[in-house]
Design goal:
Radius of gyration of chain B: 14 Å
Strand content of chain B: over 45%
Radius of gyration of chain A: 13 Å
Number of strands of chain B: 11
Number of helices of chain B: 0
Shape of chain B: globular
Number of strands of chain A: 11
Distance between the termini of chain A: 36 Å
Number of helices of chain A: 0
Structural class of chain B: mainly beta
Helix content of chain B: under 10%
Oligomer: heterodimer
Order of helices and strands of chain A: EEEEEEEEEEE
Strand content of chain A: over 45%
Chain lengths: 114, 113
């Protein structure tokens, strides 16, 4: 299957700081990248969909000014959690899709905000 | 009514048995169907996808799709303890949805030695 690289895998930060998470498709060009959040023992929750070169589409209830998404190329998307607070602590997972509507997931980033 | 429904489980099967995981979906126009496996604390991993009615086999895994009844299932033969995980069913409705998937809540499978 296709490989999606996500970094960092784990980050601990102080409240009020910003954290950037990178998602790269290593062996294919991703027309669309997705960002999910997952709290313990809960389902995946889609946060936003991003297409290369255009603004991300955010799901209802997700603050676009707090979760900044940049999709600068067909292989790279970034999610920046701005002014992070303890309630933002979660498991953030990206996925990338090329053809055939198949999404391949990155390994995820566990964010802990102190 | 949720768009993609799965029994949350846990589904417990003995080692070596067949595990049967089921998923129903509400949008009759859905075109692509996926099964992902998610171990605790890890991200989802694609196991299989199926587009056409019938069965699709890959090793110990068989995906079954019945569009008329709007269900898709995953059979795991010769279940192993390492198969213990949460299995996510995902559906793509096509059209304007692009590559977006709608996920079910997942079924937790426990394979007991």
């Amino acid at each position: 299957g296709a490989v999606v690289s996500q970094h960092p895998s784990w980050v601990i930060c102080k409240s009020g700081t910003s954290v950037k998470i990178e998602c790269r498709s290593l062996d294919f060009q991703a027309t669309t990248m997705f960002w999910y959040r997952q709290f313990p023992k809960q389902s995946l929750m889609l946060m936003a969909t991003s297409n290369e070169g255009s603004k991300a589409t955010y799901e209802q209830g997700v603050e676009k000014d707090k979760f900044l998404i940049n999709h600068a190329s067909l292989t790279l998307s970034t999610l920046t959690v701005t002014s992070a607070h303890p309630e933002d602590s979660s498991f953030y997972i990206c996925s990338a899709a090329g053809g055939k509507n198949i999404q391949y997931f990155g390994a995820g980033t566990r964010l802990s905000v102190l | 009514q949720k768009e993609v429904e799965q029994n949350s489980g846990p589904l417990s099967v003995p080692e070596g048995a067949i595990a049967s995981l089921n998923c129903t979906y509400s949008d009759r126009g859905s075109q692509s169907f996926f099964w992902y496996r998610q171990y605790s604390g890890k991200s989802p991993e694609l196991i299989m996808f199926i587009y056409s009615n019938g069965d699709k086999e890959d090793g110990r895994f068989t995906a079954q799709l019945n569009k008329a009844s709007q269900y898709v299932s995953l059979l795991i033969r010769d279940s192993q303890p390492s198969d213990s995980a949460t299995y996510l069913c995902a559906v793509n409705i096509g059209g304007n949805a692009g590559n977006m998937l709608t996920f079910g809540g997942g079924t937790r499978l426990m394979v007991k030695p």
